[in-house]
Amino acid sequence: MQDWRRGNRGFTLTELLVAAAVGSIVVAMSGWAMVAILQNNRRVEEQAITRMNLSRALDFISDDIRSAIRISTTAPSDWTIPSGGYQLVMFMEKPADNLEEQDNGTLASTTRVAYYTRPKTSNVVWRGPMILYRQKIGDSTPNALIDGIANTSPNCTNNLPGATDSGTNKGGFRVFVQHNRNVKLCIAGLVESTGTVYQAETLAAVRSGSATPTP
């Protein structure tokens, strides 16, 4: 007669240890796979955000240019560039908004706007390595427009004959200005998690008839 107890015996200690080890390996592999998926999703999201921010910045600057009177890569002698590492990239004159008041108390028919790049400093919350700033008359300090700018110059081609180059030593924002009215904008953003640099560029021009072109 067969002993019924043999078919109902429990697992041995060795079998339990092997099962526990296999289970731990499966759980660990699942965890690693989940972490890899989350990290990849984060990278994809950061890349999408970087591209979107670059596109929005170019749209904003293009609108600024279209409403301007005159564009240049240098500032006039009476304009003071802030200290602290700000580098002038583009300067423009625009019709004044509601006849803004100048420092001397008179009403201005035009206003002026400057764009700077500046390395990120420890006392700001913006992402580095560089930040793009905008300042107009009346602003005590430049205002950050977009962060996460690369510290290397965009690799873009000047397709505006005779245009003035803002230079390749001012980080990830570069402009070419032709006759003080036609502008090619180039901007490069950095995805910190991967070190990938994304570049965007566009053409913009002051509105027809409002500029005073320089031959």
Describe how the helices and strands are arranged:
Elements: H1 13-66, E1 70-72, E2 87-95, E3 110-119, E4 130-136, E5 143-149, E6 164-165, E7 173-178, E8 182-191, E9 196-205
Antiparallel strand pairs: 1-2, 2-3, 3-4, 4-5, 6-7, 7-8, 8-9
What does this entry look like structurally?
With 215 residues, the protein is α+β, with helices and mostly antiparallel strands. It has one domain. It is 25% helix and 30% strand. It contains 1 helix and 9 strands. It has one helix at 13-66; strands spanning 70-72, 87-95, 110-119, 130-136, 143-149, 164-165, 173-178, 182-191, 196-205. The strands form 2 sheets. A 5-stranded antiparallel β-sheet has the order 1-2-3-4-5, covered by helices on one side. A 4-stranded antiparallel β-sheet has the order 6-7-8-9, with helices on one face. A hairpin with a 6-residue loop joins strand 4 and strand 5 (143-149). The N and C termini lie far apart (113 Å). Mean pLDDT is 83; it is low at 209-215.
Q: Care to count the β-strands?
A: 9
* Terminal Cα span: 113 Å
Please identify the structural class as seen in this structure: alpha+beta
Widest sheet, order of strands: 1-2-3-4-5
Poorly predicted regions: 209-215
Computed Rg: 29 Å
Main sheet attributes: strand count, strand direction, barrel closure: 5 strands, antiparallel
